[in-house]
Amino acid sequence: MLKINDYLTLAEREQVLSRSDFWAWWLVLSTWMLTLALLWLAAAFPHPVTILLVWALLAGRQLGLSVLMHEAGHNTLFASRALNQGVGQWLCALPTLNDLTAYASGHLDHHRLAGTPEDPDLPNYRAYPVDGTSFRRKVVRDLTGQTGFKLTAGILRGGLVHFGGHSSDGNALLLKQVGVQAALAAILMLLGIGWTWWLWFASLMTSYMLVARLRQIAEHAAVPDTDNPDPRFNTRTVEAPVWQRFLMAPHFVNYHLEHHLLPGVPCYRLPSFRALLKDKGLLDEVPSFNGYQQVLRHTVQWG
Q: How far apart are CA 217 and CA 210, in angstroms?
């Protein structure tokens, strides 16, 4: 297995591992500002085409919050642990029906066990490549709210299980989830666009579920060697164009191979980390994917 620290100088390590509160706050606040702008757009122009557009674009913003939760779970978003825990939970995790404790505990096991049969994330991608019929069924389940319903049902039962991690809050998690959604609805009502909370929630239950699935597929499905502990062969990076990153890979989440090679690198340092790895020739044997349509052609046998 590649030991990435053997290939980095001390200065290079310090550069790619440095955390920035400015960058962190910018990513969090800009995601929420864009979310509110989209909801305002739907309220200002309540045409079916506008509603459909906002419904689709909100999914990427909701995924963006989940990505920032992921960063906070690694304690790499902000420089301080307190900000990672507080902002990561209340402004990123809870609004998207996640829980930082459940996510972080399971996700760290995923990093430790990726490339082995014990990886708790393995059920999400083990079956790939799949045939087109199977994939279409998954898309239908996502877009009709069936996947979202399973998530909310788990919360209503008093807990949240994610990647093998469990919420430590029990029934209190439900109260937090309701409280955060109520706070968002109240803010929207104060802005005079209260009804758009339903659009936010509808997207969370449908289009967001599909975008999250596509992210999972892109990261680990049908990789060169699922049983290889080297992240270069059990994890995938997609060098997608800007419009695709906006729709389904915000905050540099497409650089997933680099994240697995050195999880302490903040998401906003991943592009420069990838450039550094390329310069050192460490990615020469890694298959290149330049868009999510290429990933789907590779992971789904359309027949």
A: 11
Residue 166, helix vs strand vs coil: strand
Please name the residue ranges forming H helices in 45-131: 48-73, 81-87, 100-113
Q: Does the pLDDT value for residue 158 go beyond 70?
A: no
C-alpha separations of 83 from 131, 266, 267 in Å: 43, 14, 16
Residues ≥6 apart with Cβ < 8 Å to 51 = 42, 199
Q: What is 204-258 written as a DSSP string?
A: HHTHHHHHHHHHHHHHHTT-S-TT-SSHHHH-------HHHHHHH-GGGTT-HHH
Sign of the CA dihedral running 126, 129, 133, 136: positive
Question: Which amino acid, residue 225?
Answer: D
Tell me how far the alpha carbon of residue 94 is from its chain's centroid. 14
- What burial class does residue 34 get, using C-beta atoms within 10 Å of its C-beta: 0-12 exposed, 13-18 middle, 19+ buried? middle
Q: How far is residue 94 from each of residues 56, 77, 183, measured CA to CA in Å?
A: 21, 17, 11
Q: Are 72 and 84 in contact (CB under 8 A)?
A: yes
pLDDT of 79-134, one tens digit each?
999 999 999 999 999 999 999 998 998 888 999 999 999 999 998 899 999 999 99
Element (H, E) at 300: strand 300-301
Q: Phi/psi class of residue 75: alpha, beta or left (left: φ > 0; alpha: ψ in -120 to 50)?
A: left
- Residues 161-190 have pLDDT tens digits of 444 445 556 678 889 999 999 999 999 999
Q: How far is CA 298 from CA 56, 213, 240, 256, in A?
A: 24, 15, 15, 17
